[in-house]
Structures are given as structure tokens and as C-alpha cells.
Specification:
Blueprint: H1 4-31, H2 36-45, H3 68-78, H4 84-93, H5 99-111, H6 115-126, H7 138-146, H8 152-159, H9 174-181, H10 188-195, H11 202-211, H12 217-228, H13 236-240, H14 248-271
Length: 273
Amino acid sequence: MKSIWTLAALACTVWAATDADKCHDLLQQALTSGNPDTRKTAVVALSLAANDDPVFRRLAGMLGDKDVLVRKAVVNSLAEIRTGTATAALNKALADPAPEVSFAAAKVLYARGDPEGKAALLSVLQKESKTSSGFFTTQMREALRMLHTPRATFFYALKQGLGFVPLPGFGQGVASIEELLSDPNVSGRASAALLLGKDRDSATVEALKEALYDKDWRVRAAAVHSLALQNNPARKPDLARLVDDDKEEVRLRAAAGWLRLDAIRRRARNRGK
């Protein structure tokens, strides 16, 4: 006769198996629901699942969902998954016809150091004027240019440490970036200029310098912000030209940025004595 403990163990095993089946069924049904809100909720919930779970593996397939918000939720759920499958799915999302999805994928890939993410952000910033900006179609890039960047992008940038190397005695411009990204009219290009600021390669610096003359003052202000926080005194002449900008938001950032770079130059000179 089996002991009560053996029977209890068997009951728990059966319950666990049944419970797992029930959970899988719930998620599977939600992922195929006719209600896009239900599908989105299931996709968001899958960010809690184990990467090797059979249901989790359906996540990448949801990039083919007809609802934009569902596809964007897929990108967000894949953001912290650093596997080859997740990266491949995010690269696929770069070609999504909805700018909300492709831009979200670009930010995630860029944050994890994927060159495709950086190429996408540069393409957004440079528009169709550069031969190096062929990552997106002209129509897609124009949609991204006009894309409203929600306040949540600020918290995304903050989570990434803003991407700038801290310099003793100087701030990281948190208030400046928050103010820019909270503007309801800010575009994806301005956001791209802010996110690309940590890169100091020649292509990115040139793109930021050209953005200083953009017709959209928010893009100019974002470029000033990023160039100032690169802490390179060689950028002083670039910022000096914006001190007379017709938009207060640009010229004040340019003035503060110029003073920042001048202080860095003086520090370096004093150390050399």
C-alpha cells in the first residue's frame, strides 16, 4: 500500500503536468485570439516565460500579426532576450511597414551593439540625402522622420545610461534630453540624434554636425546636446555657430555646450602644465 506521502507526490506531479498544459493552452488561445488587445497582452506576458518554452518560441512568429501594437509588443518582449533567434527576429522587424515597430527594433538592436541597429538610426537621421542612408525606403524614412517619440523613450535612454561616459564635475544632460523627448512634436530623427550621441566614429559625428543645420529645431537641439556630451573641445566651433540660432531652445543649449567644452579644454591645458 502506497504511503500518503507517495500518493501526495504523485498527485502533485499530475497537477503540475495539468497546470503546465493549462498555461500553455491559455497562452496559445490568447495568441490566436481575434481580439488584438488579447494578443498583445499574451505577447507582453511572454516576456516572463523561459526562452526555451514552446510557447515563447511563437513570439517571433507574432511579428507577422496584422496589428501594429501587437508587433511592437513583440519587439519589446524580445528586447532583453540575447539569443540568435531573438536578434534575427529584431532584424526582421527593421523592415516592418509600421515606423513604430521598425524604430523600436532599431533602438533595441543599437542598444545591444548590433551594427544593423546603428545603420537604421543613421538612416533615419540622414534621411534620403546620403548614399549611406539606404537602409530604409524613402517612404519609410519619411514616416520615421515624422514619428512621434513618446516620453517612454527618455526612460529607455536613461536605462541605457544615456550612452555617455561620465565626466567628473559635469552633468549628463538628463534634464535636456527629458525636455526634448517630452515635446509632443519631437520626431524620430531628433530621437535618433540623441541616441547616436555616444558614438564617436566619423560617420556619426558628421551626421550629427549636418543635423545642426536641420530645418527642424528639435533635431538641431538634439544634435547640439549629443555633440556637447561627447566632451570633445574640437566641436566648439560647431556649437558656436548655433549660439545665434533663431530658436531659444537651440541657442541656449549651444551656449551651455560651448561653455562645457571650453571648460574641458581649459582643464586639459592646466593638466599639461
